[in-house]
Design brief:
Order of helices and strands: HHHHHHHHHHEEEEH
Structural class: mainly alpha
Strand order of the largest sheet: 1-4
Number of helices: 11
Radius of gyration: 20 Å
Oligomer: single chain
Strand content: under 5%
Number of strands: 4
Shape: globular
Distance between the termini: 18 Å
Number of domains: 1
């Protein structure tokens, strides 16, 4: 797929997904590309990740599983491109609709907004119920400020790996590029954990996901900084300072960029110590503002997020136009 076609596909995909999302009825009928990828990952985990194997053998099996996953996902997406591209603008529109299923602008907004609504309508219990749908930490360990920070952190991190990253790879490689990224990211979320079962087998998935998220995490920080410059009550300067000071101290090589930018923009402290299950993780703070976040701060973060999504679309549309001008 030519770069101009992949960028047009991206622009259309971003607009369509923001407008319509992924219909729930369609999800209940046929599932979602992520669920299909997830079934393949589970099958590879069951068949290749055996307890009788040594650490090195499990790591090699995990590399093989990742290669199989990427090959099968990439081939399926490439076949769809091969079938649809000859159809011209109709084919590109169909590819854009398929590519839009790999982006989660609308659903992320809905899930994070539900936390704000839960806090306002049902107090701390409502906020805990809503935030448990989007974070892995123990919700019972969170007070109102902790629930609010968790929602904002999830918004920032998922803006990077759930929206900007797939958008970046769709822009670079069309549906195939986006599908390959989504396969890698889903593998990391399912098997890329340092648990007894997956520490060796999921090593390749975790490292590869870190690699493919590098460009998008930096772009996400820039989008949040730019969005802060357009919002009264947000600070682009503090967002950029927080990125430069704190992003590299996050335990993830990528998540710190978006979380630090969001924290600085809103005058908050995000990340920091947290509890997953019964385990307390001593993470560094992102930002140097107040830690006492609330539902209003979630709404402010959502406002920045919406603006950043518009900036991402403008960037994609501008890049599309530029490639057309150059081609002529």
């Amino acid at each position: 797929m030519a770069l101009s076609d992949s960028l047009l596909t991206l622009s259309l995909a971003l607009a369509a997904e923001a407008a319509f999302g992924y219909p729930h009825r369609l999800y209940t009928w046929i599932g979602h590309p992520v669920t299909w990828i997830g079934r393949l990952i589970k099958g590879l985990d069951r068949s290749l990740n055996r307890e009788t194997r040594s650490f090195g053998e499990c790591r090699a099996a995990g590399i093989l599983a990742l290669l199989i996953l990427l090959t099968m996902t990439g081939l399926a997406a490439w076949i769809l491109e091969w079938l649809f591209l000859p159809l011209g603008i109709v084919g590109l529109a169909l590819l854009a609709l398929l590519s839009g299923t790999l982006i989660a602008q609308r659903s992320l907004h809905e899930h994070v907004a539900a936390v704000s609504e839960g806090l306002r309508d049902s107090g701390l219990d409502g906020g805990r119920r809503a935030v448990s749908m989007i974070v892995g930490r123990n919700p019972q360990s969170l007070d109102e400020a902790g629930v609010s920070r968790a929602a904002i952190e999830s918004l920032a991190e998922n803006f990077s790996d759930g929206i900007v990253a797939p958008a970046f790879w769709i822009g670079v490689g069309g549906l195939t590029g986006g599908a390959l990224y989504k396969a890698a990211n889903t593998a990391d979320s399912m098997i890329g954990h340092r648990t007894p079962r997956h520490e060796a087998f999921g090593w390749a998935a975790a490292r590869f996901d870190d690699l493919v998220n590098l460009p998008a995490s930096r772009l996400t920080a820039l989008l949040i900084v730019a969005a802060a410059a357009l919002h009264q009550g947000a600070s682009a300067r503090n967002a950029w300072r927080a990125v430069l000071r704190d992003a590299s101290h996050h335990r993830s090589p990528n998540a710190g960029w978006s979380e630090a930018a969001m924290a600085g923009a809103l005058g908050l402290r995000l990340a920091g110590p947290r509890v997953y299950g019964d385990v307390r993780i001593e993470d560094r703070w992102m930002g140097d503002g107040r830690a006492e976040a609330n539902a209003d701060d979630i709404d402010r973060a959502l406002g920045l997020y919406r603006t950043a999504c518009l900036l991402l679309f403008a960037l994609a549309a501008g890049a599309t136009l530029l490639t057309w001008i150059i081609a002529r």
